[in-house]
Write a structure and sequence with these properties.
Elements: E1 2-6, H1 9-26, E2 31-34, H2 41-52, E3 61-64, E4 66-68, H3 85-92, E5 104-105, H4 114-127, E6 133-136, E7 158-161, H5 164-175, E8 188-191, H6 194-198, E9 202-207, H7 213-221, E10 239-245, H8 246-249, H9 255-267
Parallel strand pairs: 1-10, 2-3, 2-6, 3-5, 6-9, 9-10
Antiparallel strand pairs: 4-8, 7-8
Bound molecules: 2-phosphoglycolic acid (PGA).
């Protein structure tokens, strides 16, 4: 696991965008797994800038981690009203880069057959050749996607009920600003499973801010447990990079060791 610590959110975002940008440049036909939330916004802004400077997304295939059940993209209403993750991706990234519409996959929150959709989504990922690089944030409850505490670490794309903490975090970050009453926000979601995420060939996890410090430490250094579903990162066999700002890294016991490893890798040209 490469744990990269940067001074602040901006530098962490710069680093994460650099990883994704290099990946797309080296493998134009890559399959990217993408995430929503407040954390990736800075990364996406930098990817948009890189696209304006020539980075080509025309051959990229994208799969998003998750979507609320009961919402779907509606570009006819303002952002504040449509809180779908499809809308978020459109506003924050897709409409600013040249990824082809037919190559974008986001779980359909309005499907009449959520269980059937979940199986189809898994098949689509396989048909695309699997995810080459999956970007993930980490929830306050330790989740990846909407794999809430108690979800199996082998889970596939499925329907999940949002935990009280996720409801509260997402209400504060998104729904409150939109003027939506708390009990009106969606309580269920379709999410890639932890098993689905672990099948990706590479994982890039990002986290920022002191509010994430405890859960980041649990994820990376605590026991592997379904109570912190992102702790499955410790069982992951592919290439994994964790990009943190100083605040999110502040509760890591072995922080100095991780910083030392990064310096050594730079010194020996292994970064
Ligand atoms: P956040 O969400 O980026 O808004 O903190 C992360 C997540 O829930 O995965």
């Amino acid at each position: 696991m490469d744990i990269i610590v940067r001074e602040n959110y901006e530098e962490m975002s710069e680093y994460a965008a650099g990883v994704i940008g290099r990946f797309v440049r080296n493998k134009p036909y890559c399959v990217l797994g993408l995430a929503t939330g407040s954390t990736p916004i800075g990364t996406y802004r930098r990817l948009i800038k890189m696209h304006r400077e020539g980075l080509d997304f025309s051959k990229v295939v994208a799969f998003n981690l998750d979507e609320y059940i009961g919402v779907g993209i509606n570009l006819d209403v303002p952002y504040e009203v449509d809180q779908s993750y499809a809308r978020f991706m459109h506003e924050e990234l897709f409409s600013h880069i040249n990824v082809k519409k037919e190559n974008i996959h986001i779980p359909d929150g309005l499907t009449k057959d959520p269980a059937g959709f979940c199986s189809w989504y898994e098949e689509e990922i396989k048909r695309a050749g699997g995810i080459d690089l999956q970007l993930v944030g980490i929830g306050g409850d330790g989740h990846w996607g909407f794999n809430e505490p108690g979800s199996s670490l082998a889970s596939r794309t499925s329907i999940q009920a949002l935990s009280p903490q996720t409801l509260s975090d997402n209400y504060e970050s998104f729904y409150k600003k939109a003027g939506v009453e708390r009990d009106k926000m969606p309580h269920f979601a379709i999410t890639m499973g932890i098993g689905t995420i672990l099948d990706s060939k590479n994982i890039l996890m990002i986290a920022s801010g002191v509010n994430k410090a405890d859960v980041v430490a649990k994820c990376i250094e605590g026991p592997v447990t379904s109570q912190i579903t992102s702790s499955a990162i410790q069982l992951y066999a592919g290439g994994v990079t964790v990009a943190l700002d100083k605040a999110a890294a502040s509760k890591l016991q072995n922080l100095q060791h991780y910083i030392h490893i990064e310096r050594l890798k730079e010194e020996y040209g292994m970064g």
